[in-house]
Amino acid sequence: xxxxxxxxxxxxxxxxxxxxxxxxxxxxxxxxxxxxxxxxxxxxxxxxxxxxxxxxxxxxxxxxxxxxxxxxxxxxxxxxxxxxxxxxxxxxxxxxxxxxxxxxxxxxxxxxxxxxxxxxxxxxxxxxxxxxxxxxxxxxxxxxxxxxxxxxxxxxxxxxxxxxxxxxxxxxxxxxxxxxxxxxxxxxxxxxxxxxxxxxxxxxxxxxxxxxxxxxxxxxxxxxxxxxxxxxxxxxxxxxxx
Length: 242
Hints:
The protein has helices at 2-9, 12-24, 34-42, 60-69, 107-111, 128-136, 146-156, 162-168, 173-186, 196-209, 231-235; strands spanning 31-32, 50-54, 73-78, 82-87, 90-95, 114-118, 121-125, 219-220, 240-241. By secondary structure, it is of the alpha/beta class. β4 and β5 form a beta hairpin. The chain is 43% helix and 16% strand. α6 (128-136) runs antiparallel to α7 (146-156), α7 (146-156) crosses α9 (173-186) and α9 (173-186) crosses α10 (196-209). The protein has two domains: 1-126, Beta Polymerase, domain 2, CATH 3.30.460.40; 128-211, no CATH class. It is globular and about 60 Å long. It has a five-stranded mixed β-sheet with strand order 1-2-5-4-3. The protein has a two-stranded antiparallel sheet with strand order 6-7. Strands 8-9 form a two-stranded parallel sheet.
C-alpha cells in the first residue's frame, strides 16, 4: 500500500530525481539521451514521462538492479537492445543498442559525451554525433526523427565532429546523405552548417555508384529503417532482408 501511495504522489521532478539518484548510485556508467539531450543540442523542449539512458550492454543489469531497489518495476524488454523500469506512470528506458542492432553503445560514446547538470545531478549526455546516428535510423510510419536530426545540425553543425560521424555511418553513408539533403532543403540559409568537403565526398560516392553493376542479390534494406513499413517487400514481393 505504501508503494502504491508513493507512485500516485510522484511529480515528474520527483520521478526524475528518484531515478537519477538510483542511477548515479549504481556505479555503472550511463548517458542521458532523449528529451534532455535533444533540448541541449537543438533548443527544443518536450514534455515527457520517460527518461532515456544509454549504457554498454554489460552495464544495464546494474542499472536495473539499482532502480529495482528504489521500488521500480523492471523488465528486460528486448535482450538485444532495451530494458525498462517503471514507477507509476513514469518509466526509464535503458538502451544499449538500437532496434536494428547497428548503433551499439561503446566506449566512444562516453569519451565524447558532454557534461551536464540535470536536477542537481552531474551526468553526461549522449554525444550529438551519436544522436544523429541513432535518430537517422528511425523512419517508421508513426515516428520519423529526421526533424530532430535537422534541428541538431542547425544548432550544432559548426562544432560537430563530422569525420567521426561519417566513420560511425560508413556502411550507411546514404542514410547520412539523405539527412544532409533534408537539412539543406529545410534550412537553405544554413547550408554551410554541413561542411562542403562532406557534401562533396558523398556526392562523389553517388557518382561512382552510377557506373557500378547492380546488386546480384535482390535485397531490401528497408527493415534497417522501419520494422513494419517494408513487410510487404519481404512477404509478397520476394525481396530478401539484409
